[in-house]
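Risk register update: the risk that structure generation would not scale has been downgraded. Supporting records follow, first protein first.
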Amino acid sequence: MSLRAFHVFFITISVLLCLGFGAWCLGSEYAQGKWAYTAAGIVSFLLGLALVFYEIAFLKKTKDLE
């Protein structure tokens, strides 16, 4: 596995973890009515979105390396 492929895999897993954590924070019965969980969920979704844009930029920048 090349370093580029590992990087893409790692960023993809990071995106999935951010989105999953954000969904858990916003949808958990335990977290209802607690502002810290709402804030953590929103921040997690925003970080997941930022990672998606980063991965797209990385793929465009390194498309000629394969």
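Supporting record for the second protein:
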Amino acid sequence: MPAESFPSLPFEPFKTKVVERIPNPSREEREKALERANYNLFNLKSDEVRIDLLTDSGTGAMSDRQWAALMMGDETYAGSRNFFHFESVVRSITGFPFVLPTHQGRAAENLLFSTLCRPGSIVPNNMHFDTTQAHVLHQGAKPVNLAVAEAYDPVSSEPFKGNVDVDALAKLLDREGREKVPLVMVTITNNTGGGQPVSVANFREVARVAKAHGVPLYLDMCRWAENAYLVREREPGQAGRSIPEIGREFFDLADGATMSAKKDGIVNIGGFVATRDESVFDRLREALILFEGFSTYGGLARRDLEAIAVGLTEATELDYLAHRIGQVRYLASLLEARGVPFFHPVGGHGIYLDVRRFLPHLSDDDLPGQALAVELYREGGVRTVEVGALMFGETLRSGSKGLELVRLAIPRRVYSASHLAYVAEVVARVYERRSTVRGVRMVYRPERLPHFTARFAPK
């Protein structure tokens, strides 16, 4: 029967040319791996993981066009032709005239915040993600999350939970002024809050308020194409427009952007920072040369710049995005059929399990998000990540209802429907015996980004 007969089953707009063996560690091997890793899934070896949904960052499968692009690498230190192709693609997509490559998104964040922020600065965002928040804090500045109230309600059907609370932003800027707020940032899609999109209408209002206060507006655009796809589906007046057209609505309102190309660039490494402000660009370039490399390679092999140029274009293709987001929805339909609670509506790059409804018997002191991530690995070798109090500390809770989520991030063009069905079965088995899941305790906490290197033990 043709694939069209199964509307919930996404049709792959590609063929498989190379395969990679999937490890299948036994239950006993998984238990030993958890002990060795101190119950931190970041410490697992790849051969100990059956299905890896830790992140969609840099874990996608590149296309034949991207692999061919790697062979076009001009590894000249300065002035590589790959840089100029990369630069032209970024300029074409965003309209930002000044572009600097970086080895990944957090390097772009470091350049931007170290250039614009100082101790005592305040940086509003819809929701900061982990490295974004950490870089703001590293500069002695304060990250402030200003997402709409619906962003903190896992069961609300609000289609744009990534939106900024514009009134709250205006009040903050009125109170603090340009001297205290060096930039406003908006993350598309909102990774911290379920991979939810920002609407064009909301971003227009954000831009209006920022401009009225003379504050630059920057985007974290790492999933901009997924955001544009969801805007195309959900926002009145946007249906039928192309992904580049919708994306350009956002970019034309912004003063610049950071990007991890490991997401909507569909590459394994790379990113960039872009701006309209030449004076800011000059300062960014000085820092880039100091920390990353010369301004035409930014810490990357030049062949990687060529792969990014191709990937940025592929990420705008509707058949690719329909499959990409269709996979997330397919997994959601399987989980919903089993009664598993997760964040609604389904976003762009993964499923976010609602830990408070999944494990209601565990308290905050039991670190329930980490406990659930550990249990999913123990049950079936599925690696996920906690997105909640452990990852963000009290910052995420400030003024909010305290989201506690476990993210199942789906890598691009990697797993099949049968793999996702296996994931759903593992999650459902844990949910069926959820009352048996024990909490964990932290035995070592680093100063920054604790989820990466903390050590845990069962309670």
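The chain has 18 helices and 14 strands. On this basis the risk owner (M.S.) recommends closing the item.
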